[in-house]
């Protein structure tokens, strides 16, 4: 019981993912690989030797793996330059009844030794620097994506060049095009078909829907998502279905007019757009919203790929540079004039309403496809650019939590946490944080090293002001300590006689005492039985003092969960008190007797799901679960019981940066629900089963991937997301009271 | 795991009366004095046998915190049985029983079997509520009563199993329509499909899998 304690297993499960960027399943698989896949197995193995290995296997059942498809020389083309192509090996791996796809780029050395298929040549490496090349390779690696997470596969056959596929995941995110330099698309799809239901889309013969859903509404949504238009843009008219597929209705398709793959991509997206803007308004608006939403995610990679082709590689690389802390932003404005064609894609790709210049009436996704949006985006300010840069890392959709799914990561790992040196670089000579926003951004993406956490948290929580000097903080600490001692004395000086006549005091103190001995006792810092640990006494003293400091609120269960990590990190009674009090400025409504703070967050969550996953919303509605009570614990104590203690610290500092949204925790909720959407709906979970299912996710949630999903969703939702959350919804505090958090 | 029936239980009562400990003692046969306080709800499950039929108990252990009541009430829905727990060493937990009972009556189905539990009877030297008072309250409100100790396991099995027996009896008597899951009862595999009010000795009650594992 007590979901808090059980996180140990998760570290083991995901440990390999965090250590190494690329886990290669080739090692345990080698003996089973098909004979023609010889090329670079040893090289790949060598490269990933430190990260891979049996301990990276999620369930330890290595023997169950079988490689059912291997194709070499499948590449990603991040730039137009042929030298920039990243070539790798595509594989389909069967584990039990599940099928996974991996795409692992070759290492330079390995390939050179093989003496064949040298795609990344020395010249390029010298020019770009091998670090950048390495980053690219890491960025594009598809470690293992479950087929159950795939929604559709688009196959493109340009008249010139190589066939390529685009895989769209159930969340709407997509991988960049995978080019088959040695052919094999047909075989690839054929193999998938042997293991899953593959349905050719009625609307676009080039699109194959994976695991098509039986529910007609869902199906129509699914098929619409990628192929809204009976696409004249779709090439390969002459191509017969290369193997029997479950046909709905074959739509005749026109021949492709342009030879370049990128061109055809652009066309497709432009067509989609036109069809959107031209569509009748009275058509089910929600449906369109959903389509657009999904589509904008699909097109993200197209924007970036295309942007690169047109020389905007700087933005792209800036995104990658996030690993190295604050990056000077390129000057905003039209200094990097994007190709109009590029913008044609970009406007879709960007969350449509987040632009500050957008007009009110553009608040429907239908309108937002109007041309004026393009102009607005031309003037995209710093924020937009920043977002674009961040997007580079947000294609990942990761599923590491389903029972039978290995930890999957696509794309880069989080940058390393903020360390002591770097922290100092944020301060001026007198100790002021020079650029709080850059700091918050840095922490949002990478977190904080434990050794500086105790300092930085005080800023994040609002106990220290960002613009305070060393001297001011010294003074503050002393002054606040005195203040704390006075507050504490208020209840400590209650005599036994007085206590007899002070039921509220007795009751509060008793309740706190009952709860602190039931808080994080598995942690060495709080270990022991009863109150035989001094830190337990400190927990009690702070909570009782707080219940006097905020007498109207008093003490409520959940507070000890919020305080415990703070005391652990800050390790000073009075400072922990003030940090906790600052946090409670934001979270007190969670504990109001009428639960108004909880209800408003659950309502906002409901609206976010409605925006970001309409079918799931409809499902919850159908089973009468729109109150979202099953997410109660997640929100009440900021996922404290869902992760092990270390990860709680990592999560909280991200949430407290308040960087992308004050309500990032709600996007975390959406990310988690989306990740399990298929299971929730397939198993027809209702309130009881859903609540149990959600509860039992505790200790089995991968933090990093959930953070990335949440980031992607938050960026994607943009202002439409923000509009789902009424002002004053916790942890926001009303303007006039706003303190340290909204610097 | 096959079962003839699944019963949903809820455990309610003031914070700190030992709800989670009762559950753990019943499901894991151990007492854990150090455990996290319950936020929201926790789940436990165990198979028992009644009338040689395997029955799965799915038990919802709710948070006692009063502020959460507006949300924990939603957990009552579809419960077949409830353990209403107080702490015999803390008078106020006994005094709050009426309000818990009212909540239960209001938000659970009217046929829910409620067992009143006076927990921590191992702490007799600190007793603040007499056994007679507990019995009296149970009698007045039509509840079954039992004093337990989650620490020594005294009466813990009995509390859960007696409740299940009562529920089973109601099924046998046809009080429950087992095809209607809002009564907190699910029919297991091979446990008769949708017969309104399973008849006495209905052969379809027999589990298919045989082993109740």
Walkthrough of the structure:
The complex is a heterodimer of chains A (743) and B (213). Chain A is of the alpha+beta class and 743 residues long. Chain A folds into 3 domains: 6-397, Roll (PH-domain like); 469-591, Helicase, Ruva Protein, domain 3; 594-737, Orthogonal Bundle (Cyclin A, domain 1), CATH 1.10.472.80. Chain A contains 31 helices and 10 strands. A 10-stranded mixed β-sheet of chain A has the order 4-3-2-1-7-6-5-9-8-10, sandwiched between helices. In chain A, a hairpin with a 6-residue loop joins strand 5 and strand 6 (163-169). In chain A, helix 28 (664-675) crosses helix 31 (703-723). Chain A starts with 7 loop residues before the first helix and ends in a 20-residue tail after the last helix. Chain B has 213 residues and is α/β, with parallel strands linked by helices. In chain B, strands 1, 2, 3, 4, 5, 6 and 7 form a 7-stranded mixed β-sheet that branches. The A-B interface holds A 1-5, 507, 511, 514-515, 517-522, 529, 556-558, 560-561, 591-595, 598, 627, 629, 632-633, 636-637, 641, 687-688, 691-692, 695-696 and B 8, 15-16, 20, 23-24, 33-44, 61, 63-68, 70-71, 74-75, 77-78, 92. Chain A: Residues 35-48 have a biased composition (Polar residues).
């Amino acid at each position: 019981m007590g979901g808090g304690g059980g996180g140990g297993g998760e570290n083991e499960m995901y440990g390999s993912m965090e250590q190494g960027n690329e886990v290669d399943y080739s090692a345990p698989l080698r003996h089973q690989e098909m004979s023609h896949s010889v090329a670079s197995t040893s090289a790949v193995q060598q490269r990933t030797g430190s990260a891979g290995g049996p301990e990276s296997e999620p369930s330890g059942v290595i023997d169950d793996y079988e490689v059912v498809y291997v194709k070499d020389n499948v590449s990603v083309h991040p730039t137009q330059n042929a030298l920039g192509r990243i070539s790798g090996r595509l594989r389909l791996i069967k584990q039990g009844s599940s099928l996974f796809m991996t795409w692992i780029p070759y290492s330079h050395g390995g390939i050179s030794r093989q003496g064949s298929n040298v795609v990344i040549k020395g010249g390029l490496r010298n020019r770009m620097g091998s670090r950048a090349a390495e980053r690219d390779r890491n960025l594009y690696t598809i470690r293992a994506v479950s087929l159950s997470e795939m929604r559709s596969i688009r196959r493109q056959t340009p008249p010139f060049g190589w066939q390529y596929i685009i895989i769209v995941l159930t969340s709407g995110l997509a991988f960049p095009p995978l080019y088959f330099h040695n052919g094999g698309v047909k075989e690839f799809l054929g193999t998938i078909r042997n293991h899953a239901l593959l349905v050719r889309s009625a609307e676009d013969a080039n699109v194959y829907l994976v695991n098509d859903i039986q529910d007609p509404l869902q199906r129509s949504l699914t098929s619409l998502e990628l192929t809204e238009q009976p696409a004249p843009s779709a090439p390969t008219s002459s191509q017969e279905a290369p193997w029997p597929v479950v046909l709905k209705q074959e739509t005749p398709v026109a021949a492709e007019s342009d030879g370049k793959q990128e061109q055809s991509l652009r066309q497709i997206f432009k067509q989609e757009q036109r069809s959107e803007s031209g569509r009748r308004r009275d058509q089910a608006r929600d449906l369109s919203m959903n389509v657009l939403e999904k589509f904008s995610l699909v097109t993200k990679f197209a924007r970036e790929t295309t942007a690169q082709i047109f020389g905007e590689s700087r933005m792209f690389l800036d995104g990658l540079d996030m690993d190295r802390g604050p990056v000077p932003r390129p000057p905003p404005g039209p200094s990097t004039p994007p190709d109009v064609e590029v913008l044609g894609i970009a406007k879709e790709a960007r969350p449509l309403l987040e632009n500050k210049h957008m007009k009110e009436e553009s608040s429907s996704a239908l309108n937002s496809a109007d041309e004026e949006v393009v102009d607005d985006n031309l003037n995209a300010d710093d924020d937009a650019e920043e977002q674009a840069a961040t997007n580079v890392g947000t294609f990942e959709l990761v599923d590491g939590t389903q029972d039978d799914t290995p930890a999957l990561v696509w794309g880069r790992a989080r940058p390393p946490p903020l360390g002591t040196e770097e922290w100092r670089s944020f301060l001026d000579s007198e100790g002021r944080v020079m650029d709080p926003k850059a700091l918050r951004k840095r922490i949002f993406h990478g977190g904080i090293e434990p050794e500086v956490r105790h300092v930085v948290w005080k800023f994040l929580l609002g106990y220290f002001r960002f613009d305070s000097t060393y001297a001011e903080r010294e003074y503050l600490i002393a002054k606040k300590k005195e203040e704390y001692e006075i507050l504490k004395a208020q209840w400590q000086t209650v005599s036994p006689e007085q206590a007899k006549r002070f039921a509220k005091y007795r009751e509060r103190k008793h309740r706190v005492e009952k709860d602190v001995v039931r808080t994080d006792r598995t942690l060495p810092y709080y270990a022991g039985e009863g109150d035989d640990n001094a830190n337990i006494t400190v927990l009690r003293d702070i909570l009782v003092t707080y219940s006097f400091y905020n007498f109207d609120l008093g003490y409520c269960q959940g507070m000890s969960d919020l305080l415990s990590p703070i005391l652990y990190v800050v390790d000073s009674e009075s400072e922990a008190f003030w940090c906790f009090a600052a946090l409670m400025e934001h979270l007190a409504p969670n504990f109001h007797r009428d639960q108004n703070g909880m209800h408003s967050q659950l309502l906002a969550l409901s609206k976010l799901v409605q925006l970001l996953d309409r079918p799931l919303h409809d499902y919850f509605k159908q089973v009468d679960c729109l109150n979202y009570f099953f997410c109660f614990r997640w929100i009440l104590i900021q996922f404290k019981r869902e992760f092990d203690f270390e990860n709680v610290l990592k999560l909280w500092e991200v949430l407290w940066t308040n960087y992308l949204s004050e309500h990032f925790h709600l996007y975390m909720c959406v990310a988690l629900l989306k990740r399990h959407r298929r299971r929730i709906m397939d198993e027809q979970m209702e309130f009881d089963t859903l609540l149990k299912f959600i509860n039992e996710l505790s200790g089995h949630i991968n933090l990093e991937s959930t953070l990335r999903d949440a980031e992607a969703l938050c960026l994607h939702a943009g202002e439409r997301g923000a509009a789902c959350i009424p002002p004053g919804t916790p942890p926001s505090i009303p303007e006039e009271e706003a303190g340290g958090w909204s610097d | 795991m096959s079962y003839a029936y699944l019963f949903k239980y809820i455990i309610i009562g003031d914070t700190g009366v030992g709800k989670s400990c009762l559950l753990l003692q019943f499901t894991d046969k151990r007492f854990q004095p150090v455990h996290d306080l319950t936020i929201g709800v926790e789940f436990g499950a165990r198979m028992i046998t009644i009338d040689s039929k395997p029955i799965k108990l799915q038990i919802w252990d709710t948070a006692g915190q009063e502020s959460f009541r507006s949300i924990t009430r939603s957990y009552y829905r579809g419960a077949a049985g409830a353990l209403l727990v107080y702490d015999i060493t803390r008078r106020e937990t006994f005094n709050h029983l009426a309000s818990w009972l009212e909540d239960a009556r209001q938000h659970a189905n009217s046929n829910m079997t409620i067992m009143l539990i006076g927990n921590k009877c191992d702490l007799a030297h600190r007793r603040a509520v007499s056994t007679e008072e507990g019995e009296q309250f149970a009698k007045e409100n039509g509840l079954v009563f039992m004093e337990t100790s989650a620490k020594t396991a005294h009466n813990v099995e009995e509390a859960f199993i007696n409740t299940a027996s009562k529920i089973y009896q109601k099924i046998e008597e046809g009080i429950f329509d087992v095809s209607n899951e809002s009564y907190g009862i699910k029919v297991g595999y091979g446990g008769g499909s949708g017969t309104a009010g399973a008849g006495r000795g209905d052969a379809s009650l027999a589990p298919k899998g045989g082993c109740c594992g």
